Prior knowledge:
Elements: E1 3-4, E2 9-13, H1 39-51, E3 56-60, H2 70-80, E4 83-88, H3 101-107, E5 111-115, H4 121-128, H5 132-145, E6 156-160, H6 171-186, E7 192-195, H7 202-210, H8 214-223, E8 238-241, E9 247-248, H9 251-255, H10 266-269, E10 277-278, H11 286-289
Parallel strand pairs: 2-3, 2-8, 3-4, 4-5, 5-6, 6-7
Antiparallel strand pairs: 1-10, 8-9
One iron/sulfur cluster is lined by residues 18, 20-22, 25, 27, 29-30, 61-63, 89, 115.
Amino acid sequence: xxxxxxxxxxxxxxxxxxxxxxxxxxxxxxxxxxxxxxxxxxxxxxxxxxxxxxxxxxxxxxxxxxxxxxxxxxxxxxxxxxxxxxxxxxxxxxxxxxxxxxxxxxxxxxxxxxxxxxxxxxxxxxxxxxxxxxxxxxxxxxxxxxxxxxxxxxxxxxxxxxxxxxxxxxxxxxxxxxxxxxxxxxxxxxxxxxxxxxxxxxxxxxxxxxxxxxxxxxxxxxxxxxxxxxxxxxxxxxxxxxxxxxxxxxxxxxxxxxxxxxxxxxxxxxxxxxxxxxxxxxxxxxxxxxxxxxxxxxxxxxx
Length: 303
Ligand code: SF4
Ligand code: SF4
């Protein structure tokens, strides 16, 4: 039995609403989704954080900024944890009511992780919608202006996703390409690039089925299985809280509707030290073990 033994990351998914509706989204997020984490569930997450020594809190969505309690949650997490990650789609930072977020993130020393599926407009817009690339670059400039990607303690990471049913290229090589291209063409810089393998669930899974590519893609994942990624699979060291308080081993299991085996919620755990958790696996897990490995923090091989 595989268990998560050294839980160091508390991931909190605050809802499925998003200002975008990307083709590859495993969460199937979009403007019409209404699932949203309540303040009560967030308070339970904060109690868990107080009682257990998590090194990292990772706040995600949807577009997490759209949750009405988002800023309060970030502020409280930053009081209790030195490393707070927020996953943003960048373009939300240009929307009315959200333009001061770069300063807010800076003031709370948030590690901003931004999805930018490719460094060209054509490839990014094909996955995310028209003009998304141009607006993402504008948002990156705002983040650079307040010090992100410039000062060592203001970390701005980008996330690459393949534009179809193939595995990501080498993370190291892709990071060099992104850095060179984005600086030369747009004058923007960032800290690290994470390459993430598209998981065959959610909207991407539906696309694979519709296009008759699911079997081929799964065959590609099985064929690229790399045993050396097993020790660093992210489910070994994180717990992921869904918008309604249910607990999962990771965000992909949330999307696949595979809650932790005992069906626990955040309210069951609050007030107790965390025990070993059994990890629930499915076929989608092969996306984490193919090639150089994949996780919310990018490639896992050798990590
Ligand atoms: S991939 Fe990210 S930005 Fe795109 S719809 Fe999903 S949550 Fe929103
Ligand atoms: S998808 Fe599977 S292998 Fe990947 S982190 Fe989640 S449980 Fe672990």
